[in-house]
């Protein structure tokens, strides 16, 4: 038997016309939507099941940063009222994906059936993604229209778009991505200058939605899209969420720096399965991930560090990932020492609560009228936009300080 319709799927009792509210004004009964790109993937499905479970009182909020003191005090919306929709090229029903994740141990086995009604309602709000067969101008128009319809049909005050699509190769210095005018001209002429993640980002920004670049794909990073976000007055956050080995690195590396211990080499070996592992088996796609994983270490230590960084696809691991790191360092009078650690975790279970956190935090940023990259969100990312800080504790303090800031007069 399915659980009662969760709180976040119920229509507001107020008869107020939400479309007349100022875009930056927070309201106690505000309705926020999350639009997932890659909505039938493992991370998006786990986040959707998690949101439904929390709203129905069927799960704990373990792993949700926004439940911690100093962050929860920022008057964030509860996790429950988030309304979920999204795009995906996969035709696998969300409920079937949830059942597969439960069978592999990613989700508690009882949740897919207990939350069947809620999953069906989310399924009804999912729309087809895009690919090479569709012109980019037509695709961006259609994708933007889907997001606007989602917002209007569900009487939402704001929608946060989260890119959870497969990792893409990095982009070079394509002239069409250098500025917004060049990009618009290329799209109008039938060219295809945008990688898929940036095409989705363009559509989201044109729909008036803040964006979270959860993966290392180009997304909103090209200069033309940064310009578009600024023109539309929209905040964005990214990129490449740190959920495992890099999370440990950004907590551990400052220890060596503040103890004046010289790190000589830091070798990292990552094994992962699942769809992410299959995608990263391509050297071109893995280049984006390797770049973001390596970026913070030199910044924290203050000098280059030798050592290989490998990502290897191991299908048998499924949604689990294992990382083994070997750190060689030098102490007083040149004495050589080493540290090793192993991190083994479930990727979707680590990522999903951060997705919900970022939806809530970016809704606050939008309500406060922020524009451009929100540096305070760097706590969540390997390659933090709007910030050069990589030390985890310093990033945490920046996030807490941001949450303690009062909203501008007349806003949230």
UniProtKB/TrEMBL annotation:
GO terms for molecular function: inositol-3-phosphate synthase activity. SUPFAM superfamilies: Glyceraldehyde-3-phosphate dehydrogenase-like, C-terminal domain, NAD(P)-binding Rossmann-fold domains. One of its GO terms (biological process) is phospholipid biosynthetic process. Residues 244-348 form the Myo-inositol-1-phosphate synthase GAPDH-like domain. Signal peptide: none annotated. Pfam families: Inos-1-P_synth (PF01658), NAD_binding_5 (PF07994). It comes from the Bacteria. Residues 1-10 have a biased composition (Basic and acidic residues). Residues 1-29 are annotated as: Disordered. Belongs to the myo-inositol 1-phosphate synthase family. This is Myo-inositol-1-phosphate synthase.
């Amino acid at each position: 038997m399915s659980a009662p319709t969760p709180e976040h799927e119920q229509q507001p009792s107020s008869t107020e016309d939400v479309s007349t509210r100022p875009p930056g004004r927070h309201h106690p009964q505000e309705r926020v939507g999350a639009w997932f790109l890659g909505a039938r993937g493992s991370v998006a499905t786990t986040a959707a099941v998690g949101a439904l479970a929390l709203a129905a009182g069927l799960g704990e909020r373990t792993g949700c940063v926004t439940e911690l003191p100093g962050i929860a005090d920022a008057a964030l919306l509860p996790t429950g009222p988030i309304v979920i929709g999204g795009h995906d090229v996969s035709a696998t029903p969300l409920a079937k994906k949830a059942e597969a994740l439960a069978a592999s141990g990613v989700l508690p086995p009882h949740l897919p059936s207990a939350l069947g009604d809620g999953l069906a309602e989310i399924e009804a709000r999912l729309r087809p993604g895009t690919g090479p067969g569709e012109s980019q101008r037509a695709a961006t128009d259609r994708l933007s229209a889907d997001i606007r319809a989602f917002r209007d049909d569900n009487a939402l005050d704001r929608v946060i778009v989260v890119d959870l699509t497969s990792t893409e190769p990095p982009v070079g210095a394509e002239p069409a991505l250098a500025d917004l005018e060049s990009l618009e001209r290329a799209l109008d002429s039938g060219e295809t200058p945008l990688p898929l993640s940036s095409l989705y980002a363009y559509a989201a920004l044109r729909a008036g939605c803040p964006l979270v670049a959860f993966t290392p794909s180009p997304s909103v990073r090209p200069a033309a899209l940064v310009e578009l976000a600024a023109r539309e007055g929209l905040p964005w956050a990214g990129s490449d969420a740190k959920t495992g080995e890099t999370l440990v690195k950004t907590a551990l590396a400052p220890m060596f720096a503040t103890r004046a211990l010289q790190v000589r080499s830091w070798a990292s070996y990552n094994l992962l399965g699942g769809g992410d592992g299959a995608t990263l088996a391509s050297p071109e796609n893995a280049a984006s991930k390797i770049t973001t994983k390596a970026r913070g270490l030199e910044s924290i230590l203050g000098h280059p560090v030798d050592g290989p960084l490998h990502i290897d696809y191991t299908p048998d691991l499924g949604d689990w990932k294992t990382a083994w790191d070997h750190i060689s360092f030098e102490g007083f009078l040149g004495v050589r020492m080493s540290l090793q650690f192993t991190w083994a975790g479930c990727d979707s279970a680590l990522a999903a609560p951060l997705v919900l956190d970022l939806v809530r935090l970016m809704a606050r940023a939008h309500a406060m009228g922020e524009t451009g990259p929100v540096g305070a969100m760097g706590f969540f990312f390997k390659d933090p936009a709007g910030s050069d800080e990589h030390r985890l504790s310093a990033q945490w303090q920046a996030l807490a300080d941001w949450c303690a800031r009062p909203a501008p007069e007349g806003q949230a």
